[in-house]
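Note to self: keep these together.
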Amino acid sequence: MLLPYSQLPGDVIGTMSVFCTYPLEVIRVRMAFQTRLTDKTASPIRPSFIQAARTMYHEGTSGFLSDTAHSNHLLDRFPVLKFYRGFTVTMMGMVPYAGVSFLSWGFLRSHFLPPSKTGHSNPTPIADLAIGAVSGAIAQTASYPFEVTRRRMQVGGITRPDRWLRWGETVSAIWQASGWRGFYVGLSIGYLKIIPMTAVSFAVWQSGKRLLKV
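Structure:
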């Protein structure tokens, strides 16, 4: 008997939503990455959504010689898998990001807003924003290596269209190229996105709880 949607565990619902929307994420990354033709003398291009999706679907592997014939056969037989490069890394990266974010939020609130006889000190929106910002920065730092690995695997169709890039070889390639610093390339840009987003999210969440008195 199938469970109603409202009775499904939250993690299952989250996995289903990511699974359904992940191809859009991969196409977006490919559109941002592939901004010029292979010919360096050609003028830059701005591929459309349909063009990027069509290119990903039809990028062949039969014309490449590789020792991973099984992977080639798999991609040729199931082209839809090309839209799920890096999916496992995405699912694994959600755990440290969400866990560290809420752990940091709870710890910082307990430390800077200690409970009194009547409960927690009455926080202000500024305090919520500040604690949310720090929590987002810590979570982004902890989970960013997963982000770099995922991006590298997502653009694998351009760099290595002849094979399905695995965790081990992707991590090894990043390490050999730049060492541990390679897993934090672009972290400052990530802060510019995640810190304000997390700060506002936690502040709005707390404001809603105070408004509803929950």
